[in-house]
Amino acid sequence: MQSTAYPLSQESGAAWLATVPVPVFGAALGLTGLSVLAQIHPRLVLFPALAHGNLLLGVAALAASVVLHLLRLVRHRAAFKRDLQNAAIAPFFGQPGIALLLLAEALHGSAHALAGFAFYAASLSIVAASLWWIYRMTAARLALASVSPSWLVPPIGCWYIAVLAPGFQLAWLAFPALLCGALAAVFSIFMLALRLSKGPALPGPARPALAIFFALPALILLWATAQAQEAAWLARCLYWLNAANYVAGALIFCLLLRRRFVISWWAFGMPLSATSIALTLAGTAHFSQASMLADATAASSIAITAILSVSGMAAAWRHMKQA
User: Fold this and answer.
1) Residue 80: how many CB atoms within 10 A of its CB?
2) Number of H helices, E strands in the chain
3) Closest to 105 measured CA to CA, from 200, 19, 226, 246
């Protein structure tokens, strides 16, 4: 998932800046996602510093990531354009929109006007990034070599819009966002399955990014839970699917710890926090109380985000020194 290390001889500026990977936005998603979890989990709400601290860190990470890529655009334009035109990388430019949706959800109860602005900005960003993905995907003629886990980002953005839209008095937007997300999800999962079965094989650093998938069933569980009794049966079924997904994701993450950190590890951050959020809300709505499972996944998400944060900062420092 990392950007190609482009030749720097004809580009001014720090060498490390040219090779900043596009999915560096994953840190903002992971930190802000944990803040949302800390605001809704009945035990974590007793520690408001956890929610506020991660929200501030998430906003800082998002701002820093945006600034880095703006500097890349100015000082290493060719490198930036190659990422933007690469169908395997371009969908990651939709991550800032998802980060803004997380920010909108985190601020909804305390700063509704600011949350509304974040929601509108996020929706526009996700629509633009999704249209660009479709354009680059068709330009690449659906070559399997261009298929990557980044193709799961557009449906995640659409489904998250569907989940949040009613809270911003935009209930009419939920169905088209849900439908677009479903079409994009089915297509992307099919293409990924095709590449994984027929090749070419995903590069080693890209494989952890497959964990992005865990966000999809989590968002559908959140949507089903919000429908109350109309979709109670679906929510109960999805509850156990998401529980299994979380256990699988956490075990895979533990196995990764034996290797050297790469930016794609952040794919475990927001998706697993989103799964914990869904399990917490669905457990309260359909099983009368937040379960021990929700408590365990919340504690695990805190640990995973902490490990990712420390490992990510260490890797960023090494990246700058080596370049």
Assistant:
1) 21
2) 12, 0
3) 226
